[in-house]
Design brief:
alpha/beta; Rossmann fold; 7-stranded mixed beta sheet; 7 helices; 37% helix; 24% strand
């Protein structure tokens, strides 16, 4: 079995096993990965936070684009995905943490990082309880430096108002070549 096929199988099994942690049937397409990563200023980013990386399709692209001195903090709650990421992300820039995105402020503090330049989130906001979802958005805004990018994808517009309430106006994109097609929310901290 090829590595890609193993990742898709792992993703699908985890989707059915952990419905509250996994919001998709398959890893994101290269089209979605590229569109989201295009929103990040990799040239000037010193710290990037990735939330809910799953099998690591975004992580690999972030690593490919980031500078040699960029810290990349990756937060994954699901144990199976975390083990897969531990095995596949052997890069000294990566700080891999198994925890809830609700604790991002503590995670950064433990790693002596005050702010991040960008946040890329694959969190399934539609299935996260409302209180936790709000805290994640509030904490994301708090740890993002002024001018930094918050990039999130979703399969619906259900989190748009919540993100706009904290970040102000967001730019909305749409990627049709993904299973399922996805909306991209892009906010810049004022």
């Amino acid at each position: 079995m090829t590595k890609i096929k193993r990742h898709k199988t792992t993703f699908l099994k985890t989707f059915f096993k952990e419905r509250k942690q996994v919001g998709a049937l398959a890893p994101s397409s290269k089209f979605l990965v590229n569109k989201m990563c295009d929103k990040i200023d990799f040239e000037n980013a010193k710290a990037i936070l990735e939330l809910g990386p799953g099998t690591g399709v975004f992580s690999k692209e972030i690593l490919a684009r980031a500078s040699a001195d960029t810290k990349i903090i990756i937060v994954e709650l699901n144990e199976e995905f975390f083990k897969l990421l531990q095995k596949n992300l052997k890069d000294p820039r990566v700080i891999l943490v198994r925890d809830s995105a609700d604790n991002i402020d503590l995670i950064l503090r433990e790693n002596n990082i005050k702010h991040v330049d960008a946040i890329l989130s694959s969190l399934p906001l539609a299935v996260i309880p409302e209180k936790i979802k709000k805290r994640i958005i509030i904490k994301s805004h708090a740890i993002l430096r002024t001018g930094g990018s918050f990039v999130q994808y979703q399969y619906s517009l259900n989190a748009k108002k919540m993100i706009e309430k904290k970040f102000g106006k967001i730019k909305l994109g749409f990627v049709t070549i993904n299973i399922p097609p996805a909306f991209i929310y892009h906010a810049t901290k004022a």
